[in-house]
Amino acid sequence: xxxxxxxxxxxxxxxxxxxxxxxxxxxxxxxxxxxxxxxxxxxxxxxxxxxxxxxxxxxxxxxxxx
Length: 66
Hints:
The chain is of the alpha+beta class and 66 residues long. It has 1 helix and 3 strands; from the N terminus they run βββα.
């Protein structure tokens, strides 16, 4: 899924009852097992590195959203 307006803020990440909870921008919410969270983290970092190499960061955006 591709959107014309990418979010330029990261979500909050917490742990509750052994699950990794992600509360993202615009009401996005995820609950992941630790295994799924680790894999998603690896995939996000790899994709962010590829996107940064393509010059897709909006003007004034910072790469570190943490």
